[in-house]
Specification:
With 343 residues, this protein is an alpha+beta fold. The chain has two domains: 2-82, no CATH class; 107-339, BirA Bifunctional Protein, domain 2 (2-Layer Sandwich). Helices cover 36% and strands 19% of the residues. The chain is built from eleven helices and nine strands. The protein has helices spanning 2-17, 23-34, 39-45, 55-81, 107-120, 135-138, 172-181, 222-237, 290-295, 313-320, 333-336; strands at residues 125-126, 132-134, 165-167, 186-195, 207-217, 243-250, 253-262, 279-288, 304-311. The protein has a seven-stranded mixed sheet with strand order 1-4-5-9-8-7-6, sandwiched between helices. β6 (243-250) and β7 form a beta hairpin. α2 runs antiparallel to α4 (55-81). The longest helix has 27 residues, at 55-81. It is elongated. It binds phenylalanine. Phenylalanine is lined by residues 170, 172, 212, 250, 253, 284-286, 307-309.
Length: 343
């Protein structure tokens, strides 16, 4: 009898611990405990071996055990019938789900990602750098020493508490950081937010986004630069796009150029957007100045490179037909929700 009681206790524990999951498991449970050759029946047949004076006590224990096994079966079955595996739950799994509100990507990111994917196909990889930068990486290393007049080309936000620190005015800082640390050759694009102390209006903002590119290796030439940019604009604006290069000046490149594309609004006829010239300026570029290479401890007799940089907001305005740059940073969801897919 002692042994039988121990067995019953073990079965009780097993029943309590059985997870109520699914009709198949329920049927297996029924056969095992409540079937004609099941455990409950088996225990009842043991009755005849129990001493006469213990029969009553054993009978009670056995009945309780049978009740437990049957109760478990009933609640499990009910749970399945009401559509849930959890006992007693009223959950109806056939009801349609509540939709979760889904966000959309910001139009600037959509545009940036598209530009990035074009350059990635040419083997460029993405590099990111800090928005709070020191004077060296934003200016001095880029051949813009203190008091250089070209510093005024970019109105800078300086950080008062930390002299020599500023909000980067371009993502060229990331190029310097890459040249200082990465092994050669280098082929990177640097997307990110930049800051300039400009009056906020429909056409310009005190922060905006840029993507700059850098390629350093032996024998890199201006022809490589042009072919890379041709590939970019053709992927971006179509094979028939007309392009022109104009000589320009940047302290960190020599020679320097600006690239224009035919106005996308008037097709080159001349309109308000292109100021009646038929052309839109989209980026600055040039061959990396030997002084910049030397500042980053790169041998300028052995290595050459090209760099380019463009703003993202202006072409994005054109692409999406938006007339106010401030919309990009006002976070009005009615505006943002309209941009759901890549370009
Ligand atoms: N850093 C320049 C700017 O912000 C763009 C540029 C990058 C020009 C690389 C030439 C070469 O205006």
């Amino acid at each position: 009898m002692e042994q039988l009681l121990q067995q019953i206790a073990a079965y009780k524990q097993e029943i309590e611990q059985t997870a109520q999951d699914g009709a198949e498991a329920l049927e297996a449970y029924r056969i095992k405990f409540l079937g004609t050759k099941g455990i409950v029946k088996g225990l009842f047949t043991e009755m005849k071996n129990v001493d006469a004076d213990k029969k009553k006590e054993f009978g009670q224990i056995l009945n309780e055990f049978k009740q437990l096994a049957e109760n478990k079966y009933d609640t499990w079955k009910q749970g399945l019938e009401s559509g849930s595996t959890a006992a007693g739950s009223t959950l109806d799994v056939t009801l349609p789900g509540e939709p979760l509100p889904l966000g959309t990507r910001h139009p600037i990111n959509l545009f940036l990602n598209h530009v990035i994917s074009i350059f990635q196909r040419l083997g460029f990889s993405v590099a990111e750098g800090p928005e709070i930068e020191d004077d060296w990486h934003n200016f001095t290393a880029l051949n813009l020493p203190e008091h250089h007049p070209a510093r005024d080309m970019q109105d800078t936000f300086y950080i008062q508490q930390k002299p020599d620190y500023l909000l980067r005015t371009h993502t060229s800082n990331t190029q310097i950081r890459a040249m200082e640390t990465n092994p050669l050759p280098i082929r990177i694009i640097c997307p990110g937010r930049v800051y300039r102390n400009e009056t906020v209006s429909a056409r310009s903002h005190c922060f905006f986004h840029q993507i700059e590119g850098l390629y350093i290796d032996e024998n890199v030439s201006f022809a490589d630069l042009k072919q890379t940019l041709y590939f970019f604009v053709q992927e971006m604006y179509g094979k028939d796009i007309k392009v022109r290069f104009r000589p320009s000046y940047f302290p960190f490149t020599e020679p320097s150029a600006e690239m224009d594309i035919q106005c996308q609004i008037c097709g080159g006829e001349g309109c308000a957007v292109c100021k009646r010239t038929g052309w839109l300026e989209i980026l600055g570029c040039g061959m990396v100045h030997p002084k910049v290479l030397e500042n980053c401890k790169i041998d300028s007799n052995k290595y050459t490179g090209f760099a380019f940089g463009m703003g993202i907001e202006r072409p994005a305005l054109l692409k999406y037909g938006i007339n106010d740059i401030r919309l990009f940073s006002e976070n009005d969801v009615r505006f943002l929700r309209q941009f759901t897919s890549a370009i």
